[in-house]
Structure formats: structure tokens, C-alpha cells
Amino acid sequence: MAKAIRFHQTGGPEVLRYEDAEVGEPGPGQVRIRHAAVGLNFADIYFRTGLYPAPLPSGIGTEAAGTVVSVGPDVTSVSVGDHVTYTGAYNTLGAYCTERVIDAAPLIKLPDDIPFETAAAMTMRGFTASYLMRRIYAFNAGDTILLHAAAGGVGLIVSQWAKLLGLTVIGTVSNDAKAEVARAHGCDYTIDYSREDVAKRVRELTNGVGVNVVFDSVGKDTFEASLDSLKRRGLMVCVGTASGPIPPFNPQLLAHKGSLYLTRPALADYIADPAEKAELAAELFGHVAAGRIRIEINQKYALEDAVQAHRDLESRKTTGSSVFVLEQ
Q1: Spatial separation of the C-alpha atoms in residues 209 and 203, rounded to whole Å
Q2: pLDDT tens readout for residues 159-191
Q3: Claim to verify: residue 176 and residue 198 sit in the same structural domain
Q4: What domain count does the chain have?
């Protein structure tokens, strides 16, 4: 029988349960997938804690890769035997499982040279990096970015992509080991936020000017320092709230700090259009297949170890990407 991780109430990692799961057969527009690898993302914690509401009991996880084992009526985009990956939000919730029925629309066929584990580690993170690099701001060679959580899964991809565009990358990290990882993947400078004043150090590194763009996935703890790191008319991109939601603030603050811009993008809005999604996927897969961007899978778990995986992720023990590897 298929297995799945579900939660029946919101809370800490201990609410996750490893359960038997009835899968059933796909209906119109649906397929059945046997997963080979499942991605672990910080967004999963938001669902588990209730920050992103879901009807209970609920499955968890929004990203996985595997093989199509059956297709329902009216499905023409994929066939039985295809290797596929997917990511999303509510439309793909429930990825922590061995098999599932899912709508065919979110599925992306995998190129032959992208393995399942790589796909599960990079689809959400890679798409996030791709829209940050290609849709959020019109970068020019020589621009400078501040990248929080530079040693994380998204951070390592963004750093490498930024170097392909000729950008200078300043990354924040929490310790020397993570600084070494970040520099190995393209960060020109690293700042240890546990012992350095981030905004002050950014000003020193940019001769007082500040950076063009800040990518901030931390939220509450870094918000003010991020704003203070921007150059006049710079862009603050809030891409996550790992430390908690950003408190309410008066937008006049943005004017006081240099007529700054602020955006809080969501991946779903950048892959909603099939043509744009295909374009982003082609560029992402091309970079990975050619070795221009390396996907670092530094943590692997069995599905039944989801509680420990969430504990590791929340405690910021992880670097790069984390995946659940399933027996085939």
C-alpha cells in the first residue's frame, strides 16, 4: 500500500504522521505518479504550522519527481512511463507520499539528463531562482545583490545564476562553514549575520552606495537591515519569512530610506502561464544539464523520517537542498 505523510492538526514537526494511503485511479485530466524523490522546502513548514491554511487532515509537500504509471481521460501532455517533476502550492499539496493522483497540468517532463533526485531538489528552488534572476529586475553586468540565506537551496542556485549574469553577490550566512559553501558557489563576499552588522558591512563593501536588489527569505529578523542595505531607488524582494512575518510598517518608510521599491512575489504567479513556465524551465534545465549551475543535495531522508527532516530545516542545520528518497 502507498504511504503518505499527513498532519491532522497544525503545530510543530511532531504533528506529522506516516500513514497508509489509498491512491485510486486518475479521473479526467489526472495522472497517477509513483514518486522517486520528494523535495523538502521551507514552505512545507508554513503549511504545517498553519501560516498557509489547508483543510485538515492534510497532506504536505508541493514538489516531487517520479514516473507516470497511469493516465486518465483527456490527458495528452504526458504518457505512461514519462519521467516528470512538479511544483506549485495548493494545486500540488500532498507530495510527501510514495504514489498519488494529481492533475496533469502542473507536470513537467524531465530531460533525460536530469535525475529524479536532482529534479526534486531543484524544481521549486530552481523556478524561484529563475524568476528572481529573469523576471523581477532588469539586471546589468556589474550590479550588486544582497542575498540572505546564501548557503540555502535557493541561495546556492541564485548565486551561481547571478555570476552567469556578471553580478556581484554579497551573501549572508550564520557560520564559517556556510560562508565557505556560499563562496564556493559564487558569493563574492559573505557576512556572518550572527556577529556582523549586515547593513554597515554592505555599505563598506559598496563604498557607501548600497546594493541594487536584496533577496530576503528571512523576514522579520532581517527586514530593517535589508532596507538599509539598498541604494537609492533599490528593490527589496521579500521571498520568505523564515524568522517570522514582517511586522506592519508605514510605506512612508520606503521614501525616507531612498524611494525604495518593495515586492512580495509568489512562485505560482510566475509559472501560471504555460508558455512562461516552459521558457523558465528550459533555461533552468539547460544550465543544470550543462553544469553551469550545480544542484547540491546535502541532506537525504527516508519519507518516514519527515519529523526529523523538519526539525533539521527549522533549526537551520541544513545547507543546499534536502530531499526524501523513496524506494523503487
Answers
A1: 6
A2: 999 999 999 999 999 899 999 999 999 999 999
A3: yes
A4: 2
